[in-house]
Design a protein that fits this description.
The complex is a heterodimer.
Chain A: E1 5-10, H1 14-25, E2 32-37, H2 50-56, H3 69-72, E3 76-78, E4 83-87, E5 92-95, E6 100-102, E7 105-108, E8 112-114, E9 127-129, H4 133-143, E10 148-152, H5 156-167, E11 171-175, H6 188-200, E12 203-206, E13 211-216, E14 222-226, E15 231-234, E16 236-239, E17 243-245, H7 248-252, E18 263-264, E19 276-278, E20 283-284, H8 293-307, E21 322-326, E22 329-335, E23 345-351, E24 356-362, E25 369-375, H9 381-389, E26 423-425, E27 430-431, H10 432-440, H11 446-453, H12 463-476, H13 493-502, H14 508-515, H15 524-536, H16 551-555, E28 565-567, H17 578-590, E29 594-597, E30 603-608, H18 613-622, E31 635-640, H19 654-665, E32 674-679, E33 693-698, E34 701-706, E35 718-724, H20 726-743, H21 750-755, H22 760-768, H23 776-788, H24 793-798, H25 801-804, E36 822-825, E37 828-831, H26 834-843
Parallel strand pairs in A: 1-2, 1-7, 2-3, 7-19, 9-16, 10-11, 10-16, 11-12, 18-20, 31-32, 32-33
Antiparallel strand pairs in A: 4-5, 5-6, 8-17, 13-14, 14-15, 21-22, 22-25, 23-24, 24-25, 26-27, 28-30, 29-30, 33-34, 34-35, 36-37
Helix pairs in contact in A: 1-8, 10-12, 13-15, 20-23
Chain B: E1 7-12, E2 22-26, E3 29-37, E4 43-49, E5 51-52, E6 57-58, E7 64-68, E8 71-75, E9 82-84, E10 103-106, E11 109-113
Antiparallel strand pairs in B: 1-11, 2-3, 3-4, 5-6, 7-8, 8-9, 10-11
The chains are: A alpha/beta, B mainly beta.
């Protein structure tokens, strides 16, 4: 232990944490005895996504630290502990509580603090900054007694703060000193379009306002006075006027500083003291402070590299291009966005109807891209960035890059032209070569690319580009991705769905006759049955359909390993009367069925012979039960907590909503099973974020989550929309399910569907919420047709004597299948194991 | 011993729906019978043992009939292996074979022979 190098990391923000991850990745961490100090009470969290904390107020959403990271790597972490002194001669750091730790090397990652200009009144109550969870908690508390909020500063973070105020239900104002929003990143035209779009969302934008005084207001808590004589009354003020490096520790230790602050570093991130590195927003490189996460991470890499003596990676500045979504508005800025390069030319496209602004700045000879501004639609960001970063020659008419194409084809980049070193995903630093290697190693869809390269798992802005590289590479390798459903249909499931809809096809025979060959098989028949059910919702036994059904659908029960079936009646939301529960017990007793409570809050009855199914269901239907569709590729359950009726924490009636949802979507056939859940408050007892559609109650409505999954490959659901009314929630779910049914592959759960969706969550939102494809009405009509034609398949069946005939085991005998043998375990039946069976015969 | 095949009546052809199997009890054995309709619309009867050796259950009659390449097959409903209805040979594992039986239509009656 004593031969280890003593490394002290001061600061546990995103960059400090990234340094530790990079150290572990370098494989050298065992040579260091690492002590980490963080001033905040929590381990590193992702500040960039602070606004998403607002949705749930759950730190887990933005936590950056993998469980067990510190203990597994033997790193010592002190949270809530500020370092107060560095003694460079004794090589000791001292913390607030008086701890003294000796060091050989220090990583200084203290970050920055929000700058609050010394405006008179800035120390009043209800004036905040937007930086830490603590700040947000204070804002949230103050908002409860407030009506109006104002943000001073219309930069990137200021607009994020405005979004937070809006989410808190306040009338929101943004006050900016410069003549436009995001003055650093966008030009005048872009700023004007951005203002317009943000005002459309209900935020008032005040530019060219110099705040001179904050005093007590009359109608509101504060009154802000501006240099031009105007005033603004507000209850809450949030300063977002830029950042300043937190360099006091370094200054007191006598390290080399910049004239306006910041710890001076070289390309290896070493400060004026060879034993001290500085990274992130506290560091000054080439007279620049970098206030973004990507350059901070690049510094962390360079520092690890130098520290461990590899000596190959240096920090060489960073491209400050950004793409983000502010209050749902796409904003992107690349390189020289203002056209400051001498003799540069620019091309601009403005569309007032769609509220889109696009500008590119190119070199004098039209050959190279220097910069760009995109507002309202940033689809070209990926390819434009590649043109600039790789100095690729532009097409002869560069304006084509931002003009909308009439035929819908993209005029973007040819991915073949990209060099291998081109970074496709800057969040995760994944190059084209990384993606190509992954494809060569066998990854052949986006899901696989994501899991082995991490590309497109950060902001997701590069998904389209990565997909193009993937497809291009597959094509080059001659890998023909055969998406045919099976040998009988040279179509994908999605094609067949469209064919069946458009041609109004009602039977498999007609589909096979017009579009297929052969007799069909156990792939295409159930798929066709499933699509026909999604479209026309006829009973599974209708004579043209019954031969297509998988045995589970045919017997309306899940076949178990011994050929018996399970019986699962619907118990919507898990709510059941004592009398109905007694019926289940009585039926199970009478037919000697194995009984178990399921994860979906209902009851499984196992071990029913096919010939018993009609009798069992007759009793259940008579008692008021319906089929639970546990056997179908269809809605299973809508899990719920008891909600506001009983729970002291509940804020909405989750029970009522889950029953309403379950009854609406029961019987809906889909590419794979569907699970839902509704939680009555943010404690999330119903585990809605592991479901295809999850609903979580908020004070003012419902948050909707989509594409979660438990099971084999768990996926946390994505927040899709917030604070929805009952009717908006149902409208969005209608559209969402029907869009999934229309576009998913066979047996593709919503989680995988999402992982492979070009454009990802944002695209899905644009289709479902903004109705970008103009499909919303159609999707809703399709859903309402399914809802209106619901029937309990079991009820219809037992009312029809002809349909009942199919359940006997033998066509020519009333005997039972003698191969079904049960034994008893824990007072219930179970199928006898083959080994037990062989034993029994030997004994005989 | 006689060379004469003994045919036993099982059921009426109308009791067997196209492409949907039934199970018959025949000489103490379970036999799955299928009536497959080919592309020309002609009916063809197949009889194969109902016991699936992979799942060790009597479930073959509940599988989905179809074709793979030029073979008419039945897919076992539990683990989805395919068996050639003509020969009983498993497509995925040629070493596995289930018994097949002579089957015919006599008038409107379906008959099996051993």
């Amino acid at each position: 232990m004593s031969d280890k190098i003593k490394l002290v990391v001061i600061g546990n923000g995103p960059v400090g944490h990234n340094f530790l991850e990079a150290l572990v990745e370098s494989g050298q961490s065992e040579h260091y005895q690492v002590t980490v100090f963080g001033e905040e009470p929590l381990p590193a969290y992702d500040r960039v996504h602070l606004t998403s904390w607002f949705k749930n107020q759950d730190v887990a959403d933005i936590n950056m630290v993998k469980e067990g990271f510190y203990p597994q790597n033997n790193f010592t972490l002190f949270t809530g502990e500020k370092v107060t002194n560095i003694d460079r001669f004794k090589q000791i750091v001292t913390s607030e509580s008086g701890q003294e730790i000796a060091y050989d090397k220090i990583i200084l990652a203290t970050g920055s603090f929000p700058f609050v200009p010394p405006v008179p009144g800035h120390q009043r109550d209800n004036v905040f900054v937007y930086r830490t969870i603590d700040d947000l908690e204070k804002m949230t508390a103050a908002a409860k007694n407030s009506k109006v909020g104002a943000v001073i500063g219309g930069g990137l973070l200021g607009l994020e703060a405005a979004k937070a105020l809006m989410d808190l239900g306040l009338e929101t104002h943004v006050v900016e000193f410069a003549p436009r929003l995001m003055a650093v990143q966008v030009d005048d035209g872009g700023g004007a379009m951005l203002s317009k779009k943000i005002q459309d969302l209900g935020v008032s934008v005040h530019t060219q306002k110099n705040t001179q005084n904050i005093a007590a207001g009359e109608s509101n808590f504060h009154k802000m006075s501006f240099a031009d004589g105007t005033e603004l009354n507000t209850d809450i003020i949030v300063f977002s006027a830029g950042i300043r490096p937190r360099d006091e520790l370094a200054r007191n230790a006598g390290l080399g500083m910049g004239a306006r602050g910041g710890v001076v570093i070289n390309n290896n991130c070493v400060t004026s003291d060879d034993n001290i590195y500085a990274i992130g927003e506290v560091a000054l490189w080439n007279n620049q402070i970098f206030g973004l996460i990507a350059p901070g991470n690049a510094m962390a890499k360079a520092a690890v590299d130098h520290l461990t003596g590899t000596g190959t990676i240096e920090f060489a500045g960073a491209d400050m291009s950004t793409k983000l979504k502010l209050m749902g508005v796409d904003v992107a800025s690349i390189g020289d966005a203002h056209g400051n390069t001498p003799n540069s030319r620019s091309y601009t496209y403005v569309n007032d109807r769609e509220e889109v602004y696009k500008k590119i700045v190119v070199s004098e000879d039209d050959k190279h891209l220097l910069g760009a501004v995109l507002i309202g639609d940033a689809a070209e960001y990926g390819s434009l960035l590649q043109f600039m970063l790789n100095k690729m020659e532009l097409p002869s008419e560069p304006e084509g890059l931002i003009l909308p194409s009439v035929d819908g084809s993209s005029s973007g980049i040819g991915v073949d032209a990209l060099p291998d070193s081109a970074v496709l995903c800057s969040c995760m630093n994944v190059s084209k070569a990384d993606v190509v290697d992954a494809v060569q190693a066998g990854a052949c869809d986006m899901g696989a690319i994501k899991s082995c390269t991490k590309a497109a798992t950060g902001c997701g802005g590069c998904t389209a580009l990565v997909t193009q590289v993937l497809n291009n590479e597959l094509e080059k390798q001659g890998v023909e991705v055969n998406t045919d459903l099976c040998e009988h249909f040279a179509y994908t499931r999605q094609d067949l769905y469209n064919i069946i809809r458009v041609d109004n096809i009602k039977t498999f025979e007609e589909l096979l006759d017009k579009y297929g060959t052969g007799l069909g098989c156990d792939i295409c028949k159930p798929t066709a049955a499933n699509i026909l059910a999604s479209c026309w919702n006829e009973h599974v036994f209708n004579h043209n359909l019954q031969g297509l059904q998988d045995t589970n659908d045919y017997y309306m029960g899940n076949m178990q390993k011994d050929g018996t079936y399970s019986v699962v009646p619907r118990i919507a939301g898990g709510e059941i009367t004592p009398n109905k529960l007694i019926v289940l017990g009585e039926v199970a007793n009478k037919y000697n069925l194995y009984t178990k409570i399921t994860g979906g809050q209902r009851v499984d009855l196992f071990g029913a012979r096919s010939e018993q199914l009609p009798m069992i269901w007759r009793e259940l239907v008579d008692a008021g039960f319906e089929t639970g569709h546990a056997y179908g590729k269809s809605l299973r359950t809508v899990k719920s907590c008891v909600g506001s009726n009983w729970c002291r924490y509940g804020v909405q009636d989750s029970m009522g909503m889950s029953i309403r949802l379950e009854n609406r979507y029961k019987g809906l056939r889909s590419p794979h099973k569907l699970k839902m859940a509704v939680s009555g408050c943010t404690r999330e007892c119903a585990e809605a974020q592991s479901k295809d559609v999850g609903v979580i109650a908020t004070e003012s409505g419902w948050n909707m989550y989509v594409c979660g999954n438990g099971g084999m490959k768990p996926r946390h659901a994505d927040l899709f929309a917030s604070d929805l009314s009952d009717s908006d929630l149902i409208q969005y779910i209608d559209r969402f399910f029907m869009f999934y049914i229309r576009t998913a592959d066979r047996l593709q759960r919503t989680s995988v569907w999402m992982d492979n969706m070009e454009g990802g969550l944002e695209y899905l939102k644009s289709v479902i919420i903004d109705d970008k494809l103009g499909l919303a009405d159609e999707l809703e009509q399709e859903m309402s047709a399914v809802v209106d034609t619901y029937q309990c398949e079991w009820k219809t069946t037992i009312d029809d004597p002809i349909k009942m005939k199919r359940f006997t085991h033998f066509i020519n005998s009333d005997k039972q299948d003698d191969n079904i043998i049960f034994t008893t375990e824990r007072e219930q039946i179970r199928p006898i194991a083959t080994t037990e069976l062989e034993l029994a015969f030997e004994v005989k | 011993m006689t060379n004469q095949t003994q045919w036993a009546n099982i059921c009426e052809t109308s009791e067997i729906l196209p492409n949907i199997g039934v199970c018959a009890l025949f000489k103490n054995q379970q036999v799955a019978i299928f009536k497959v309709i080919d592309q020309e619309g002609a009916e063809q009867l197949f009889a194969i043992n109902n016991y699936c050796p992979f799942s060790r259950s009597n479930t073959i009659s509940r599988g989905i009939a179809g074709n793979i390449n030029n073979k008419i097959v039945i897919a076992s409903p539990l683990y989805k292996q395919h068996f050639d209805l003509e020969t009983g040979i498993c497509i995925e594992d040629q070493n596995v074979k289930i018994s097949t039986y002579p089957v015919r239509l006599k008038g409107s009656t379906v008959q099996l022979a051993a």
